[in-house]
Structure formats: C-alpha cells, structure tokens
Specification:
- Together with LptD, is involved in the assembly of lipopolysaccharide (LPS) at the surface of the outer membrane. Required for the proper assembly of LptD. Binds LPS and may serve as the LPS recognition site at the outer membrane.
- GO terms for molecular function: lipopolysaccharide binding.
- This is LPS-assembly lipoprotein LptE.
- InterPro entries: LPS_assembly_LptE.
- Keywords: Cell outer membrane, Lipoprotein, Membrane, Palmitate, Signal.
- This protein is of the alpha/beta class.
- It has one domain: Double Stranded RNA Binding Domain, CATH 3.30.160.150.
- About 35% of the residues lie in helices and about 30% in strands.
- The chain has four helices and five strands.
- A five-stranded mixed sheet has the order 2-1-3-4-5, covered by helices on one side.
- Helix 2 crosses helix 3.
- The longest helix is centred in the last third of the chain and has 28 residues.
- The protein is flat.
- The N and C termini lie far apart (about 60 Å).
Length: about 170
C-alpha cells in the first residue's frame, strides 16, 4: 500500500512539472550582453577549449566570429600540475594531487577587458600494479576537471553583469 502511494506521488509530481512547462533554464547565468560572443584560444581544438565551447553552448551562448562590437572570451592559459601527496612504505607514490589552473579574459564591446581564472584540484590514488586502468581513470579525472573549470568560468562571467551595464 505504501509503495503504491509513493509511486502515485512520484507520477503526480512528474505530471505536474511536465504539464506546466517547467524546465531548467541553462542560460540564466550568462548576462544578456554576453549571450553572443566570440571565442578565441591559442589551441581552438584542445581539450580545454572544447570543454569551454560545450559549456557555452549548453548555456545558450551564440559563438560568432570576432567582429567589432562583439564581446570576446579568450582562453589565455591552461596549466596542470601533478604533485605527490603520499607514498607507500616501499617509497612508491601512493596518492597524487592533480591541479588545473585556467586563465581567461572577457573583452566587452566597450573595450574593457576583465580577467577571470579558476583552479580545480582532485586527488588521485596511483596504484602501479594497475597501471593501464589507472591511466584511463586519470584521463577521466582530467576531463571532469576541465568540464568543472569551464562551468566555473561561465559562472564567473555572470559576475561581469554589473560591469556590462555601465
């Protein structure tokens, strides 16, 4: 009896939310002045550039070629570090701290440039006995870190809203 009431409640909530037209608003973070911008990078097909481009598209930002009067998001620098956090008794590396630093800048249509940056850290347990599996796991972690950094940069672009209105 209790299970059927829970199921009925879940179905009713789903029906109400879909019937009223409610949906997630992905583009709420980006100010209207930055909804159309040019994207520049020294490596336009690099992994960080592609992650940032995907996040811009997910937030309903139109990416156009750089012209006069269009704001420009420039990916300036991406740096990574791989530091040892702990070691096994035998002296082998046990745990590492992976760090990703990303620096970008937004040049508004009025010519003002605002730097934005972010840093993402993760820990990684490195077991040398499963080197191939750990290599694949490390690649997945780096991709997640790039996506998180891209989301954080988009969030910091939202902080530029007061600057775009001046």
């Amino acid at each position: 009896m209790m299970k059927s009431i829970k199921t009925l409640g879940l179905v009713a909530a789903t029906a109400l939310l879909t019937a009223c037209g409610w949906h997630l608003d992905n583009g709420a973070l980006v100010p209207p002045e930055l909804r159309t911008l040019a994207f520049e990078s020294s490596d336009p097909y690099g992994e960080m550039s592609m992650a940032l481009r995907r996040q811009l598209q997910a937030n309903n930002v139109n990416i156009v070629p750089a012209t006069q009067g269009v704001p420009v998001l420039r990916l300036n620098k991406e740096s990574t570090s791989n530091d040892v956090a702990s070691i096994f008794k035998q002296g082998r590396e046990a745990e590492k701290v992976l760090a990703l630093n990303v620096e970008a800048s937004v040049r508004l249509a009025n010519g003002n440039t605002y730097p934005i940056s972010t840093k993402v850290n993760r820990t990684f347990f490195d077991n040398s006995r499963a080197a191939l599996a750990k290599s694949a796991e490390r690649d997945v972690i780096w991709n997640d870190m790039r996506n998180q950094a891209a989301r954080q940069l988009i969030g910091k672009m939202a902080g530029l809203q007061h600057s775009t209105q001046q």
